[in-house]
Amino acid sequence: MPLVSTPEDRFTKVPDYDYPVERVAVGDPEMAYVDAPGNGPETFLCLHGEPTWGYLYRGLIDRLTDRGRVVVPDAIGFGRSDKYTEREEYDFRLHYDALTTFIERLNLSNITLVCQDWGGALGLTAAANHPKRFARLVPMNTDLPTGDQEMPAEWHRFHDFVESASELEIGRLVRNGTARKLSDAEVAAYDAPYGSEAEKAGAYEWPKMVPRRGGGDGGSLTAAARERLGSWEKPAFVLFSDGDPITRNARDDLRALFPTATEQPDRWISNAGHYLQEDAPEEIAECIVRFVDRT
Fold it and tell me: How do residues 164-190 score in pLDDT, each as one tens digit?
């Protein structure tokens, strides 16, 4: 069970993300996170996906603190969090248990979940199983797959690329998933957490783990979560970009899943890719703040 800590000096040149970093044990590994105090009663829990880390939310944090605390963890294997260096150490249960332990250790409540990509699959499952801790849901460019659906062609291309790669250029992958061109410094920030290919084991494994027809992991957990979320009575605001070929087709299904989602605006974020937080942070934050104020 090789487990490595991530040296802090790798992040000295990361731009626009100078928030204090904290860590908490979630079993054997430690999870790193930013915990920005806010001016209101809300708690925003912002969860990233493949192959990013909390840096993805840097454009939203200060815009959300007007309404409350903003907590941005790095998943195990990503960002500043500890990393297993062997792919077989990662599974859905590891990530799910780490997230729920994190929420319990920080005693988070009144959570507005802001989640994208794998952050949605994990965060929505956590909300389904611990509804008393969650006040609202904002799923963005994500899905809650149960293992019985076909994935879009673009997802298969991404999966096959990652599986065949001898070197996974994390920053380049993020740049290719945005509508705007990231700066070289921003691309380097996504590469910063990794000193070797072995430390990218989590990023190599996440595409393979997606529950889908013929493969993946965690389908029993997500299927149970979907059933519970089908009677979700708290506010839910599904907010997708118009330029994401990987998750776009999941948007209407998610909006139909939550009984309260159609009470919110039928809103798309224009001119944004898979990593919509990079393309439209101000617009997204404004949408979330208005959602909180409405509900």
Answer: 999 999 999 999 999 999 999 999 999
pLDDT digits (tens, 9 = 90+) for 59-117: 999 999 999 999 999 999 999 999 999 999 999 999 999 999 999 999 999 999 999 99
Catalytic residues: 117, 244, 274
Strand partners, 23: 32
The answer to whether 51 touches 83, Cβ cutoff 8 Å, is no
Among residues 275, 18, 45, the alpha carbon closest in space to that of 170 is found at: 275
**Whether residue 51 has a cis bond before it, omega within 30° of 0:** yes
Beta bridge partners, 43, equal 69, 111
pTM for this entry: 0.97
C-beta of residue 76 within 8 angstroms of C-beta of residue 48: no
Domains defined for the chain, CATH in brackets: 3-294 (3.40.50.1820)
Per the CB < 8 A criterion, the answer to whether 2 and 88 are in contact is: no
- In degrees and rounded to multiples of 5, residue 89 shows phi and psi of -75, -20
Tell me the CA end-to-end span of the chain in Å, nearest whole number. Answer: 45
CA–CA separation, 243 and 228 (whole Å): 30
Per DSSP, the residues of 219-274 read HHHHHHHHHHHTT--S-B---EESS-TTTGGGHHHHHHHSTTGGGS---EETT--S
| Percentage helix, strand, coil for the chain under 3-state DSSP, each rounded to 5 | 45, 15, 40
